[in-house]
Each structure stands twice: as C-alpha cells, then as structure tokens.
Amino acid sequence: MSSTDRQSLKPLVYLTRIEKFCSAHRLNSRALDVQTNSQTYGKCNAVHGHNYTAEITLKGTVDAITGMVLDIAVLNEIIAQTVMKSLDHKNIDEDVPYFRDNDIVSTAENISVYIWKVIAERLPPNVTLDSIKLHETDKNVFVFRGEYA
Ligand SMILES: [Zn+2]
C-alpha cells in the first residue's frame, strides 16, 4: 500500500463494549421428552441463573472529524434498549419472545445469536458487528461472528 492510499483510506478500528447481566433460564427442548431433556441437560434442565458477561465487538471506520468509530453513548443506549432491557433480571425462557415464541432453547450459543440479531439491526451504516462473545461462567465462553454453515 502506498502512502497515497493510506491518506485516502480511513483506518478500520474494532471497538468492544463489555456488559454484565443476570438472567434465569432452564435448558429444555420442547422437541425432546422429559427423560431425554433430563439426560441431555442434566442439572441445567432445572431453573437456575447466571451472571453473564457479553463482549460486543463492532468494527468501523474512524470518522475524520470526530475521531470515533461510534459514540460510546450511542452504543451504550443501543445495548441498554436491547440486551439489558430484554435479558437483565429476566427469565429468558418466559420473558423473551424470541425464545418463548420460537421454542428456542436458551443455551449460551442461542443467547449469543439473539444478542447479535438485536444489536446488528440497530447499528448505523458505517459500523458493522464483528462478534458477540458471551461468558456464561468463568469457564464457558461462546463466540458468534454472524456465520452460518
Ligand atoms: Zn444455565
């Protein structure tokens, strides 16, 4: 890349916002019978809770005038109105229509996908979502990058 190219292009920067929320859930698939649910999910087939940590990473070009990818206050408001409002101090299986109405099991995998969906649709055009990293416990961490296979 020549110095001329660098001058005409804007730097692409990744920005991560970390938020914590507390939710109750149970792992239970309506497609499985009681015994199979118990065998599949073990202790997690009963209602219990987690203190989740979500790392929401965006990428975008740095605005030449503001010097920012996205105003953190704007990002914070998007997260507050989506992730925090729908998940914090909620029973995910009963209170979140995405899970309740679509028979989606509230695994950390599916919660990561849910967070992606609700954030991605609210971002301004110069910014895209890079990844959702969800810590369900200190030992279990899940990453969704918007990929389907
Ligand atoms: Zn759990």
Automatic annotation (TrEMBL):
First-tier enzyme category under EC: lyase
Gene Ontology, cellular component aspect: mitochondrion
Gene3D superfamilies linked: 6-pyruvoyl tetrahydropterin synthase/QueD
Tagged with keyword Manganese: no
Transmembrane stretches, start-end: none
Biological processes annotated in GO: tetrahydrobiopterin biosynthetic process
Pathway, per record: Cofactor biosynthesis; tetrahydrobiopterin biosynthesis; tetrahydrobiopterin from 7,8-dihydroneopterin triphosphate: step 1/3
Top-rank taxon, per record: Eukaryota
Cofactor(s) needed for function: Zn(2+)
GO molecular function list: 6-pyruvoyltetrahydropterin synthase activity; metal ion binding
Keyword annotations of the record: Lyase, Metal-binding, Tetrahydrobiopterin biosynthesis, Zinc
EC number: 4.2.3.12
Family affiliation: Belongs to the PTPS family.
Protein known as: 6-pyruvoyltetrahydropterin synthase
Organism encoding this protein: Medioppia subpectinata
